[in-house]
Amino acid sequence: MPDLARLLHRVAARLRNGSPGKAVTVGCPDGLTAAVPHDRLERAVTNLVHNAQQHGQGPVEVTARPYEKSVRIEVRDHGPGFPPDFLPHAFDRFTQADRSRATTGTGLGLAITAAIARAAGGEYGAYNHPDGGAVVWITLPALPPPPRSA
Fold first, then answer.
1. Which ranges carry the Histidine kinase/HSP90-like ATPase domain (predicted)?
2. How many C-beta atoms lie closer than 10 Å to residue 39's C-beta?
């Protein structure tokens, strides 16, 4: 299973390079791992960050932390947030908050992320941050830290 900090930094660097001017910061303690195959975890995180870059404003903040017996990954942008009536549908397939401003997306990124979280036994959600911007999150089962050598 992948080291989460390393994976988050790699995804952030790739998406920063693909979207100049779209700052992506990462906050994640070393040694945190999720019980999810590497390719699926990378796809889920990529979808969350890309969505924030496309529909929000910078900077995009990616954080991960232990959460009960899980790992919680949050991605926050500093844009206008989700329309309140869209929040319950943010992870539905083929949905976009504002069709008139739709980019080339299909409305599948968050739905794919939700499917990855569900398949791993995790959860997902979205809310508008009180200081502005949208926050999307997933929780995934955590792997226990490796035993310390004596």
1. 36-144
2. 10
